[in-house]
Amino acid sequence: MSGPVMCALLPTSGYARSVELPVPGPGPDAAVAFVREHLADLVCDTPAASPSFRGGQTAADAALAALDVTRYAGRRNEVWPVERRGASRMSPYVRYNLVDLPTLWAHVADAPSNDRRKYRDELTWQEFTRHLYARFGRDGHPALRDELRATPPQPSEPWDEPWPRDMRCMDATVGELHTDGWLVNQTRMWLASQWTVRAGARWRDGEEEFFTHLLDGSRAANRLNWQWTTGAGSGKAYGFSRWQVQKRAPQLCRECALRDACPVQGWPPDQRTTRVTVSDLLRGDPDPDVTAGPSSPLVGSGSEAVEEVVDAVWLTAESLGDADPALAAHPDVPAVFCFDEPLLRRLMLSGKRLVFLAETLADLATRRPVEIRRGRVVEELTGRRLAVTFAPVPGFRRLREELAPAVVHPWPWLFRPRAGRMQSWTAWRKGMPAQPDGPVPVAS
């Protein structure tokens, strides 16, 4: 579906082969200049930095140090004014594992009990999405693109434009998505429900629009959030109406030109979903160790080892933090990151996302040697003795098989995947321990 909210494709150039890029200097201006010079043909807009988030471990550490979830339970769903929001704003750093879930779990240990419980519920939801994505995608399939439980509602009169900008609630939230690259959870639900349940547009197209712009965009969380909101993942759709806006952001209704003729005054007239055949993978995992990856470092031959000689740490977009297990285990070799040209040309993300990555790499380069490449990952990295951290995504499994890294380090799960049921977060959570598996690091 096209329209003014979609990211327009810019002209693309030919495929560049075997390109090593300079490491950008620190700061957002240098990162923007880097993306504009070296990656502009791989984004769908003019590269710019998010005005609200800085990339890199230094920014992530500052955000973690400032994180206080007191009153989180009561304010996490507030939208406007911005000062009332209780959202932690940690999700961009979680997405790239600049701050991992076990560290956040430990960080809120002393918070008020209800706030701690609510925040840890959000962390376990993130872990649930990763478990489900890893389970469904381990055979190289496009995980979670098919409806898990039901087909979303089909309104009798679909809208021409799923996010009409003459609605103040849509204009403000879509504007925030495109400008900042981030949204609070409440407005993500508004936009997803409005797109599909109300307007009748395909949820996959809306999910792509989110993925294009969100700094924290991951296929695991983004696809599952869209499935649950539209009813595809739960069988029960979330209905968006004026009631939510008046409750969470009343000034948007007061400022709206349509306040006396609101097109979402009542609940969506039809929220019925249609059940689909449920995959056996929701009922169980035939081999959870394959889903979870190694539980200790593995050399290419498959035996356990921690002393294998490597010449570089291969960084993936799933794990860019200083505490990345491969980075931490091999401090004396350079880190190498490859901008996957074929993948990025297909995705055509917003430049904000690549600027965030450039900031992150530049920040890492202040502490250890970093090498940045652009091209086909296998061609750029073949022949090197690489250490890497397992990533629970389909693309990593394919690249790992082709590159045969010297050492693969375990992913830092909050709860290591198990074989049990995953029809819902509740069913999955019952099968997990009360506390995370293994020792939980204490946040500094």
Overview of the structural elements:
The protein has about 450 residues and is an alpha/beta fold. Helices cover about 40% and strands about 5% of the residues. It contains 19 helices and 9 strands. The chain has a 7-stranded mixed β-sheet. Strands 2-3 form a two-stranded antiparallel sheet. Helix 1 (about 30-40) packs across helix 16 and helix 8 (about 185-200) packs across helix 10. The protein is globular. The chain starts with 18 loop residues before the first strand and ends in a 14-residue tail after the last helix. About 50% of the residues are buried. Mean pLDDT is about 90; it is low at about 1-5, about 10-15, about 300-305 and about 440-444.
Summarize the structure in short:
The protein is an alpha/beta fold and 444 residues long. The protein contains 19 helices and nine strands.
Topology:
Elements (H helix, E strand, L loop, with lengths): L18 E3 L6 H11 L18 H10 L5 H4 L15 H5 L5 H7 L5 H25 L12 E2 L16 H13 L4 H14 L4 H11 L5 H12 L11 H7 L1 H6 L18 E2 L12 H5 L5 E2 L12 E4 L9 H5 L5 E6 H7 L3 H14 L5 E6 L1 H5 L4 E4 L4 H10 L3 E3 L15 H6 L14
Parallel strand pairs: 5-6, 5-8, 6-7, 8-9
Antiparallel strand pairs: 1-7, 2-3, 4-9
Helix pairs in contact: 1-16, 6-10, 8-10, 9-10
